[in-house]
Amino acid sequence: MKHLRRRTRAQWTRDLLLWLLLSAVIAAMGADPVTDATGFAVRTGPLVALAGAAVLAGRPWPLAAVLLLLPFGPWRFDMGLATSTLVWPEHLPHVKIIPFQPVTLFVVWYAYLAGRRMRGTGPALAAFALLVVIGAGLVVARGAGLGLWITVTTGLLAVYAVPYLLGLLRRRLLQQREQARLSAAARARLRERARIARDMHDSLGHDLALIAVRAAGLEMAPGLDPAQVRAAGELRVAAAEATERLRQIIGLLRDDDEAGADADAGPPLAPVGEDVAALVERARASGMPVTLRRDPSVPAPALARAVVQEGLTNAAKHAPGAPVTVLLSPRRVVVRNGPPRSRPAAVPGGLGLTGLDERVRLAGGTMTAGPSGDGYELAVELP
Question: Are 27 and 173 members of one domain?
């Protein structure tokens, strides 16, 4: 009853039209209602009612419709889509291939729907076994000749088995298509998460590091009273804690699909159009002693800004107050800093260098990062 209440008006209309069409085909195959009204009422009437029950059950349970339409199966052995003459192993003229009557087409349709809509194959196998038993019983009752076995076998395959397998194949293909769509959507979400994580690290992490540097400079500036020094220290600590929380959030957002994110990256969070010189000037304005060495007439590599930003961010977090030197050449970018002059404002162990190394690798270059003298050096070689 739930399935009947859930049907829409359009579904009721389609089912009614299907039943009328099926009833018309059944009536055309039965007795003439004008000349043989009794025969029509006795034989055709129950079949029309059975067809109505099959249509009602066919939408939620197509296998039930197949069983309800059992009288219209391939049991008319004197009819067939084709007639053949066999000469081996014995001479058999006029063997019917695929016994078929007009109403059998509806049976084929519901067999297809059974494969298309049913999840498990157990009920379908049980129903097909029942059909095989019925077909075998009819053949045995008619003499069990080889021609009859060929007729019923082709009928069972063409009317029940093949349509069901086609429906099952269609369902599997649709499931694979849906799985592919969901997988593509999941990859898109992962790429977006990776892009957000990278942009948060490159932009917000850099800005928080500069805030910590500026706060450290204020903390050591002469002429401040103890309350102002304490406020500057609290600001530096708060920036360091915010950086650590940002690193934890980035760890949740990032995943192994960052390479795909680089291909589909959206708009960055950093200022639009900011080049290396503007990035260095912004860091210098925050209090970092940065020196930029480059030939303005020679274009910098495409990844220069990302490398410089990562190097300045690391220097601000792990070596506050240290002088930083940025070297730019057409195929090499180096960010080198000296020893820290105050307590670092961040905990080591971030993922910035890992992400940068992946971007450099995808560009065909190599990256090295590690201690250099009493400081630290980040160097990128591009082809």
Answer: yes
Query: How many residues in the chain?
Result: 383
Domain that holds residue 74: 2-182
Q: How many domains does the chain have?
A: 2
Q: Which residue has the tokens 């086609």?
A: 166
pLDDT for the residue 363:
83
Cα distance from N-terminal residue to C-terminal residue, the chain? 71
Task: Kindly state whether residues 9 and 126 are assigned to the same domain.
Answer: yes
Provide the b/e sequence for 58-89 (b: ≥16 CB within 10 Å): bbebbbbbbbbbeebbbbbbebbeeeeeeeee
318 pLDDT higher than 60 = yes
> How many whole angstroms separate alpha carbon 298 and alpha carbon 49?
88
Q: Tell me the pLDDT tens digit for each residue of 131-184.
A: 999 999 999 998 888 888 999 999 999 999 999 999 999 999 999 999 988 888
Helix or strand (DSSP H, E) at 371? strand 366-372
The two structure tokens encoding residue 112: 């297809």
Q: How far apart are CA 371 and CA 378, in angstroms?
A: 9
Query: Residue 347: what pLDDT?
Result: 56
The separation between CA 200 and the C-alpha centre of its own chain, rounded to angstroms, equals: 26
Contacts of 365 (CB under 8 A, 6+ apart): 303, 380, 381, 382, 383
Cα–Cα–Cα angle for 224, 225, 226, rounded to 5 degrees: 120
> Which of 42-51, 78-87, 256-265, 291-300 shows the lowest mean pLDDT across its residues?
256-265
**Cα-flanking dihedrals φ and ψ of residue 268, to 5°?**
-75, 160
Residues 53 and 172 in one domain: yes
Give 245-279 pLDDT, tens digit per residue: 776 666 666 554 444 444 343 333 444 456 888 88
Q: Looking only at Cα atoms, what is the longest distance across the chain?
A: 120
pLDDT of residue 348: 59
In a domain, 218, yes or no: no
Place of tokens 């829409």: 8
